[in-house]
User: Fold ABC transporter substrate-binding protein from Halobaculum magnesiiphilum.
Amino acid sequence: MSERITRRRTLAALGATGIAGLAGCAGGNGGDGTETDGDTAAADTETSDDMDGTTTGSSSGASGTVKIGVLQPISGDLQYYGQQSLWGFSCGLAYKAGVEPAVTAETGSQTVTVGDVDYELYIRDTQFSADTAQTLATNLVTDQEVDMLFGCASSGAASRVSTTVAQQAGVPYMAGPAASASLTGDSETCADNVFRASENTAMDARSGGKYVAQESDVSRVFLFGADYSFGRAVVNNYEQVLTNEGVEIVGKRFVPQGYSEWEGLLDNAVEAGAEGIVGGFTVATLPNLFTTYLQGDYDFTVFGGFATAITNNVVGGLLQNQLGEPLTEEKLDGLGVGPFTTRYHWNQYDNEINSAFVDGYVNAYGRVPDLFTSGTFTAASAIVQGVEEGGSTEGADIAEALRGMTVAETPKGTDAYTFQEYNNQARSEMTVANVVPTADEWSDTWGAAVQPSDPVARIAAEETTIPADGDDMTCSL
Assistant:
């Protein structure tokens, strides 16, 4: 048994009101967002679904129950963030069980059985609010006595859950897909019991920045970002990486979400001599930037990260309006849009695990796996691996097994994610891809006019994350 404090010991010490009083005690913006080969199961695996939402499959390992509190936005304008995150997690559990994914993005409890272990998921809707996430996390720990917490698409919500619930109660927390690098990079929000398999903004920037510096002719860049933690993390990480690579930063500007007066700012970038711009935005702002860029006469190139289907749908529509239908690679060539980095998209990895993942995800949810799904698949895969390797369903023992773990089965391939011992952030390979018209075979399940091309570059896992001695790494576990 691990010597670290267990959930049950914590609850006994704190009592019923031990962390309940923490709800709502922290300030901050609750709307903080993010824009993240192996063998199949044995042939004798049996699958069954019953009325209580239980899915069973065969495997080997520990026995008992792991209760996981799941926190995702599954209603409202950004419910797709929570849906794809939960669907990815569902597919990770299903892959380990050798069954078809069956968990739905609905509040309540659902169970997936892997061998002799029941993974009980207590799904709660954060509504993309830090206050709501904190309250729900508190209730899951005190009322449901969960062994672990998983989730939060909002970086503000993830930080709040880490500092005011997970760390206070000693309950392991697998964050994701919240992408702000500070969650696992800052001494306040990182902790021995806080993990993240999902890719983050530093990984976006370190991959994209290296590509811009080493593979393009761009030597002068203007940085734009949304004025909250996600946008600032994108800009700050790009600034550090590009500067280290010898690219001159000619300016940077943060704007509110939904900002639309882009003509003047893009003119400022031209006057500053920018050859490229980086936009650290989500769907709330990025379309406005692209509209002005496409309608203007600008010579610089737009860089950044490939976003989810939501943003690609909007950007694809803008490109169709500007260039006419149908979109072709010839029309997109030389437009100055991309290439972009991607944390994960369904067509970036060719291995048996990813093939099974894509097939299962499409069959279950009617879409291809999107940006956040590899990280949350890997989160589930890692938890099951931790239970089986540690032989325990106790949260503290699972956390002990996760530290430094190389996750065996992931959509990016075998052993493709490793949790760094100095901050519990998993590093993994990133890719760079061009913007291309969506292929006919994916048009129904992707739903946007443009998609990532096949990878034009791969950035090794060892190069994607902030190193232990990096200027922005104040976490040291």
